[in-house]
Description:
Elements: H1 6-28, E1 42-50, E2 55-62, E3 65-73, E4 84-89, E5 95-100, E6 108-113, E7 119-124, E8 129-134, E9 140-145, E10 156-161, E11 166-172, E12 177-182, E13 188-193, E14 198-203, E15 208-214, E16 221-224, H2 233-239, E17 257-262, E18 268-273, E19 278-283, E20 288-294, E21 299-304, E22 310-315, E23 320-325, E24 331-336, E25 342-347, E26 353-358, E27 366-372, E28 377-384, E29 388-398
Antiparallel strand pairs: 1-2, 1-29, 2-3, 4-5, 5-6, 6-7, 8-9, 9-10, 10-11, 12-13, 13-14, 14-15, 15-16, 17-18, 18-19, 19-20, 21-22, 22-23, 23-24, 25-26, 26-27, 27-28
Amino acid sequence: MRRVAPAASYALAVACAFAAARLAAQATATPPSTHQPAPPERDYLVFVASESVDRVALIRFGPKGARVERERYVGWAPTELAGPHGLALSPDHRHYFVTTAHGTPFGRLQKYDALTDAARGSVLLGSFPATLQVSPDGFYAYVVNFNLHGEMVASDVSVVAADEMVEIARIPTCTMPHGSRLSSDGLKHYSACMMDDMLVEIDTKALQVSRHFRLTAGREMGMAGAPPRRGAGPAAAHAMGGRGMEPPAAGDLSCQPTWAQPAPNGERVWVACNKSSEIVELDARAWTLRRRIPAGPGVYNLGVTHDGARLIGTNKRDQSVSVFDAASGRELARIATTRKVVHGVAVSDDDRYAFVSIEGTGSQPGTVDVIDLAVLRRVASVDVGPQAGGIDFWKSEAARP
């Protein structure tokens, strides 16, 4: 009788378990409501960056539908693509911040007045600064230096004084950090190491890595301190060829995380495993694995409602967005999007809507889809510049007559 190697046997068992879990999740998913969604009573405003045209658009969605309110060019030379990738609003809603990733060789963090689009500052950061978030007190912006075009070596997270636009720290973390997110109290910062299969936690008071967590299926482990300083090798570089669009090879149990999303109450952290199409849920206090949740193909970015009840995942290898019940991990609905290559998600201040950025393919424009979280349906779409990516919710206000 032919023997199966232990590693191959384990890989097969894990793969079968994941497949069974996915089928169970799909079988119990609630289809989108057939009820006609109520129109919005207010106007909702969202900023989105389009990487291929160096523009940020302000989207207005309300009783009259969705439209582009205005646009702002955020490049620095018509002959050189700056590539705006990440976008975040300050907590006081007065400014928005944009990472322009395609520097020579370094990128920038740029600051603009949210009301007028006037430039308010710029600072040079590392190679390919990507996702960012502003701290709850508004004092600091945390930016991951993704280092997409560099060597497969460990990179870092830049900490910028948001008022002065001065980099005050650059904290070494891991290879290709992405998904920069802070706990609601601002004391912990989380980013995912795409090529090291790890989640990294930064203590924002000490400005250093406090813990890291290995995410590979069957090898999950939480550890103190910073991860080992090592590159991920040529295989990892090859795996990035599709920018999160490549499915795993047979027997590959790696996560290839692309996003980290802490729960509003600080008890959990969700990590999007782009390669294995799962969401890993960790106990943020005990630093242990809680569960692995089957997700959509190539789950990429995550968002969560302010009440912590629903988790939203964008499915980059699918043309869809998934909405989960955060308590049970059950997928409530998988909602088709207007175009392919789904990117980011932002949730409205009242938890009513999710705004989803879609990159598009070829000569297609980028798109922002609006998902009604009450009825789990797409209710509006608006085209923006190609390769729409970074997105953040600004505010809601009385509907314009």
